[in-house]
Amino acid sequence: MRRGPRRWLLRLAALAGLLALAFAAWLWWDMREWRPDEALYPEQGALTPANGADIKFPTLRAVGAQFVYLPLVDDLATRGGMSFSDRFQRARAAGLQVGVVLNFDPCAPADFQSGAFAQMVPRDPGLLPPAIGLNRLADECAPNVSDAAVESELMTLINQIETHSGKPVILKLGRAFQERHRTATALARDLWLMRDRARPDYAGRPWLLWSANSQLISEASEEPIEWVVVQK
User: What is residue 75's predicted lDDT score, i.e. its pLDDT?
Assistant: First the structure.
């Protein structure tokens, strides 16, 4: 008599596991092409991969992107793929608004990073405001870099990038960096936050840009792209 209830519990647990797997599979499949409603977010665009994968910028525009941000990557790091300069020229030729993301390295001096930006990104009032990606922490820097030093170098980098571009930067702020440095509170700059499907709230104040799908599958790219929307 005791085996009956136990058997039913095992069956229910197995069924719950199957339902969880089915939901996860559906969510993965749905997220491949999911984008926020254009009625809510009429301005939408993309951040291209940093690995040099081929991007069809006219196709990207045709599928709904009005703007594109390009990660600033040394052309040698693309391993024979599409270089930064190629992407920059082709994106503009496709009629997309173009911006550049410089991913902040807490282990490197600000002067070195801003110098690379100034060398590769033209002074052009037609460009979108530059973005600084804040994801990497200083935990693996050698020699060690204090939090205070990271924050000081970041402020120097911001000033240098803004001087070059003539526009305030946007901070593409990761959750871990925000939790460590409280950047959203310390720096009065527009924010670019990241969270798949659900609106991000970890900065504690409103954001301008939202990476709503980090792995969007599109015929515009050989690799998944990061889909970005603007909040008005």
Answer: 56
Q: Is 42 exposed, middle or buried (0-12, 13-18, 19+ CB in 10 A)?
A: exposed
pLDDT given for residue 22 in this prediction: 46
Q: What is the pLDDT of residue 16?
A: 60
Distance in angstroms (rounded) separating the CA atoms of residues 147 and 177: 11
Tally of CB atoms within 10 A around 45: 24
Mark the ranges of the chain whose per-residue pLDDT is less than 50: 1, 20, 22-29, 76-77
d(CA 74, CA 121): 12
161: number of Cβ within 10 Å: 24
Element housing 180 (H / E): helix 175-181
Name the packing angle between helices 147-165 and 110-120 (round to 10°).
20
Q: Are the CB atoms for 167 and 190 separated by under 8 Å?
A: no
Report the C-alpha gap between 212 and 214 in whole angstroms: 7
pLDDT tens for residues 126-148? 999 999 999 999 999 999 999 99
The per-residue pLDDT for 33 is 86
Q: What is the dihedral of CA 181, 145, 169, 85, to 10 degrees?
A: -140
What CA–CA distance (Å, rounded) separates 128 from 145?
A: 32
Handedness of CA 119, 123, 126, 129 (dihedral sign): positive
Residues comprising the chain, all counted: 232
* Contact predicate 71/47, CB 8 Å: yes
